[in-house]
Every structure is written in C-alpha cells, then in structure tokens.
Amino acid sequence: MKLLDKSHYKKLAEPLKQVKFNISFALSVINHEVTGIVYVDSYENPKTFYVIHPYGMSLLLGDYNNNEFNGCFKEYALNTNSVRSEFEWMQVYPNAWDKVLSKLFGDKMIKASSNTDKKENGIIELNTRVNFKFNKAKYLKSIKDTLPPNCTIIQTDKDVFTKMKGNVIPSNFWDSPEDFLNKGMGFSLFYENRIASTAYSAFVHKNKLEIGIETLDEFRGKGFAYYTCSAIIDYCLANGYEPDWACRLENTSSYKLALKLGFDPCQELAYYRLSN
Predict the structure, then answer these.
(1) Which CATH architecture has domain 2-129?
(2) Between the CA of residue 142 and those of 190, 230, 262, what are the distances in Å?
(3) 71 in Cβ contact with 86 (< 8 Å)
C-alpha cells in the first residue's frame, strides 16, 4: 500500500465513475473538498485504491486479485501494527471483493449479529449499509406544520459548527467552519435557547446533498431530529437539490427516521468495520 500524493487524486476519477452506489464521501476526498487519504498499489499505474474520509468512512476499489496489495491491506485492516486508534467503516467495489475479503480474513470476519462480546480488536465486523431514495410525495404528506413549544430552528452558523458535540457533527465532515459556511448548509434546533439537534450537508455533489444529523443525548426521543432534518430537506427542495440518506441497517433510529422523512430503502451493501 502506497500513499498517493494529493496532486494525483485525479487518477481515481474514472474508476469512481464505475461505482453503482452512493460514494459522496470518496468524491469529497478526491475533489479536495475535505482532507482525506488515498492508498494505491502503484504510483505510476494504480489499479487498486483505498480512499479514506476523515470521518472514518472508506472505499476499497478496483483490482481485487492484487495479492501483494491484499496482503498489506489485511495487516492494515486488522490494525496489526496499531497504526490506527479509530475504526474505519469500509465499502467495496466491485462486490467480488466480498468473497476475496471473506477468504482473506477467514475466522477474523464476524457478523455484527454474532459479535455478542462486542469485540473490537483483531477482527473485521460485517455490517450492512442501506442507501435510500428520497420520495418527495411521501415527505410532503409527513410534514408537521408547527414546532414543539420552546423550540426554534436557525441556520447553522460558525458558533454551532464549533460547539456542537457528538459523532455525526459538521466539524467531522468539513475541514473548517469557513469551508462549511461557504460550501455547505445546515439548520439547528434550539430548545429553551440550548442547542439540541443539527442537520446539515455532510456532502454536496452536483444536485445531491447528503444529510448528516446529530441530536445531543439529553434531547433524544423528543422528535427534534425530524424537525431539524425537515428544515434541510425544505432547503433542498427550494434550491434544486435531491436529499440523500444512508446509514447502517443496524442503526435503527437513523433507519426509522429516514422512513419517517419520506426516504425509501433502495440498496443494501456489505459494510465492514475495520479494527481500531
């Protein structure tokens, strides 16, 4: 595995065009919209690529019969040399990779449903990622006209970008507040003048805007995420964007929220959690 210089990310442009599912995170990296990492098998004529978004989403792409690369990738994925302190969540293309990885990792590959001990080190946990298609008619039927009492929604500003805590927050998807404010969009719900939830563009490519959503623990279960996401969806509809949504099948709260907002599941894919 060789670290590809950022000036050569254009070498991935054509291979990425072949991918048949949502790869907004990878496009954000190769288009230099966020600072990511790309590994390849060869500097001169790469055939196998591994693209990593700073949030930890990744894509293994290209030649799957590349034994030298695959051997190095096995060590990397299992974190044999402790080069990573965080998980990476990986998708693959083409799907022939799935059989190759099953053989490569053997009994180190564990389905999420079978990982009852919640083991994190020295394994690859197999999950499922779901891509959704926005159904405008369903969304419009679901709209609630009024916010709950003591709630307001504002456009996400630099202060919210900086202070919002959690995992799926704007600062994990944009390099800086300035980048977000110049190229992205978000809305945040305040309850009694305290920030409770934020929904925003995790990625924007052409006419598609992929939604990220985070609600602080103390405010969960109150329906705030629905209202906040509705604000970013309304923005999309008013400005010619198609809202995108994707999540793990195992993330039942995100899955149910997507359905409530008018998204229809359209594709399920293997989603590999690499060791931390």
Answers:
(1) 3-Layer(aba) Sandwich (3.40)
(2) 22, 10, 7
(3) no
* E strand residue ranges, the chain: 2-3, 37-40, 48-52, 57-62, 88-93, 109-111, 124-134, 151-155, 186-191, 194-205, 208-215, 242-248, 263-274
Domain with CATH 3.40.630.110 in the chain: 2-129
Q: Which superfamily is assigned to 132-266 in CATH?
A: Gcn5-related N-acetyltransferase (GNAT) (3.40.630.30)
SS3 content of the chain, % helix, strand, coil (to 5): 35, 30, 35
Helices (H) and strands (E) in the chain, counts: 9, 13
Phi, psi for residue 56 in degrees, rounded to 5: 105, 5
Q: Give the dihedral of Cα atoms 188, 191, 197, 200; nearest 10 deg.
A: -10
What is the reported pTM?
0.94
Instruction: Please list the residue range(s) of the chain that carry CATH number 3.40.630.30.
Output: 132-266
Q: What is the pLDDT of residues 106-140, one digit of tens each?
A: 999 999 999 999 999 999 999 999 999 999 999 99
Q: Which conformational region is residue 116 in: left (phi greater than 0), alpha (psi within -120 to 50 degrees), or beta? A: alpha
| pLDDT one-digit tens code per residue, 74-97 | 999 999 989 888 999 999 999 999
